Amino acid sequence: MINIRSSEVQESLESLNKAVARLAEVADSTPEREGLNKALSLNENLSASARIEFEKLKLEHASFRQQVSLVIKSLDDTIGYLDAKILLIDKEP
Length: 93
Description:
Elements: H1 7-28, H2 31-41, H3 48-91
């Protein structure tokens, strides 16, 4: 078991918990995905307003994917930082 002795490591764990909570929050806000799936199921005879809505939903989906990517990058950075801190703690006498 790892003994957390550093306030920096504790802060990083808190940051990691916040990032995980944010990822869950973003993953739960998926109405744009449902809308995109509905728009994709329409046939070739989409009306002009439906086509505009489809493009809007595609943009929202891209934004959602970008938000998830940023949260994952944040998690990856935090995990890398924690790994480095753990190595330093393990080397302490």
